[in-house]
Write a structure and sequence with these properties.
174 residues; mainly beta; 4-stranded antiparallel β-sheet; 2 helices; 6 strands; 34% strand; binds zinc ion
């Protein structure tokens, strides 16, 4: 994105356009979960105060790949608001903002992209649910109360290795 500062004044001007996705300089890798699938789009408002250039707006691009949660196809636009402030030399007519816009898009990419905000994994792990996190009393607790507090332990399989529990002494809390 090349901004023509020579045509700018304090009243500012709006710019809208796009650059080919190659400006995102995405290194091709087979391990990529997502990759750019469309141009880098930008919508900016630029003002020049003396020698200080102020640019505000938004940059974004379409990405495609695989959803990290359900494994299905992913096609989403990622981007962010940008605010750029830069000193401009008196003889400077054009300012290249490509790297700033590219950076804002790359920083907006999530570590684990999902196909939509309400994507759910295909098979919920039902066997894990209801064990400890639901707050319901264990069926053993009623028996424990009757028997005077005897704890019921599940017998371990005979060949199960017993892990020694190491407990680090707490030295201090900071
Ligand atoms: Zn998904």
């Amino acid at each position: 994105m090349i901004l023509p500062v020579s045509r700018l004044g304090p009243d500012g001007a709006r710019f809208e356009g796009q650059d080919p996705k190659e400006v995102l300089e995405w290194p091709p890798s087979p391990r990529d979960v997502v990759r750019p699938a469309g141009p880098m789009r930008w919508r900016l408002e630029a003002q020049l105060f003396g020698t200080e250039l102020l640019v505000r707006g938004r940059a974004e691009a379409l990405f495609e790949g695989t959803c990290c949660r359900c494994g299905g196809p992913l096609s989403r636009v990622y981007g962010d608001e940008v605010t750029i402030s830069r000193e401009v030399a008196p003889d400077e007519t054009d300012v290249d903002l490509t790297s700033e816009l590219r950076e804002s898009i790359l920083l907006a990419l999530p570590n684990n992209p999902v196909c939509s905000d309400d994507c759910r994994p295909p098979r919920p792990l039902a066997e894990d649910a209801g064990e400890a996190d639901d707050g319901a009393a264990s069926p053993w607790s009623a028996l424990d109360a009757l028997s005077g507090g005897t704890t019921h332990e599940q017998p371990a399989p005979p060949d199960a290795p017993k892990k020694p529990r190491t407990r680090k002494p707490k030295t201090r809390r900071s």
